[in-house]
Amino acid sequence: MSEMIDFELGGRTFGYLKPYLIAEIGVNHEGSLDRAKRMIEQVARAGGHAAKFQTYKAATLAAKTTSPAYWDQTKEPTSSQYELFQRWDNFGPAEYAELAQHCVDQGIDFMSTPFDLDAVDMLTPLMPVTKVASADLTNIPLLRKIARTKRPVVMSCGASSHAEIEHSLEVLLADGAASVTLLHCILNYPTPRENAQLSQIQVLQEKFGSRVAIGYSDHVRPEDDGELPALEIAALFGARVIEKHFTDNKQGVGNDHYHAMDEADLRRFVDKLDVYSTLYGTREHSLSAQSQAISNARRRIIAVRDLPAGHVLEEADLIALRSNTGIEIAQWDSVMGKSLKRAVAADLPLQPEDL
């Protein structure tokens, strides 16, 4: 498998076990600007790199009578996607500008997925990178509009064939996208463990990783204790961008609360990444941390009996014992057959000047 391309944004590089972390608030603010701002603050406190929203109008997103839900309706009941999206499409340019500034004030990036062409125009000046939702991977007019902003693009690949991903990638790159990152994603809300298919992170890397960075967008419900094993595995597999829905109330009804992480979950994951990164270290081969062991744990060549000057050394004269001085055992073959310049007492190590 080829070496993975790092994700670069705003002069920063996100590499192995140091992914760019997108907390997708989406519409979990439920139309409250103050709540959205508080959630941005939670993301920043927990160590996320970006707070992401969703920008749409129901009328330009879903048909009124022919758009049934594709998610678990016991958690998100609706007569149609149109009906659901109407509930949460109240934010406009002023609100998004205010949220973007609040992200700046909190030291993180603002993102919002545009679901129509007007949203691209409105959001582009506010964001360092544009996110394409899985369901819009085949939306060629939207992809072209986004690509022509000349910005980096992060695109989820849920419910898409490799041929569709290839075509969309070609469109984005041909029309000017500064870079593209592909996120493995499963469009099950929530995603059962048996459907997560994290192996596809590696498959995407094999097929597309010579041209783009690879990441992961997750819909697996957190464990009862808040652990996020899918995100951990994705990071260990090398995901350079990781996206996960974010909420301030995991018991909330509807929206994406029921499969989202909260501030404590994100903080726990960030801390684990720090541990994993520390344990992984670097690819530079260094023995500096083991210098004491090299000095004290390695065996040296020791005389087993008193040896007179002029004696020609044989294996029976010597033994390999741990010692912090003397000729290392690695030189055993070169020592055999040499004569001693001076006498060496039993139990003492041979020194180079003895030969």
Give a structural overview.
This protein starts with 6 loop residues before the first strand and ends in a 20-residue tail after the last helix. The chain has 355 residues and is an alpha/beta fold. Strands 5-4-3-10-9-8-7-6 form an 8-stranded parallel beta sheet. A two-stranded antiparallel ribbon has the order 1-2. A two-stranded antiparallel sheet has the order 11-12. Helix 8 (229-236) runs parallel beside helix 9 (263-280). Helix content is 31%, strand content 17%.
Fold topology:
Elements: E1 7-9, E2 12-14, E3 20-26, H1 33-46, E4 50-55, H2 81-87, H3 93-106, E5 109-114, H4 117-123, E6 130-132, H5 140-147, E7 152-156, H6 162-174, E8 179-185, H7 199-208, E9 213-218, H8 229-236, E10 241-245, H9 263-280, H10 291-296, E11 299-303, E12 318-322, H11 332-335
Parallel strand pairs: 3-4, 3-10, 4-5, 6-7, 7-8, 8-9, 9-10
Antiparallel strand pairs: 1-2, 11-12
Tags for this model:
TIM Barrel, elongated, alpha/beta, two-stranded antiparallel ribbon, 12 strands
Structural class: alpha/beta
**Spatial strand sequence of the major β-sheet:** 5-4-3-10-9-8-7-6
CATH topology assignment of the largest domain:
TIM Barrel
Largest sheet: 8 strands, parallel
Structure summarized in a few sentences:
By secondary structure, this protein is an alpha/beta fold. It has helices at residues 33-46, 81-87, 93-106, 117-123, 140-147, 162-174, 199-208, 229-236, 263-280, 291-296, 332-335; strands at 7-9, 12-14, 20-26, 50-55, 109-114, 130-132, 152-156, 179-185, 213-218, 241-245, 299-303, 318-322.
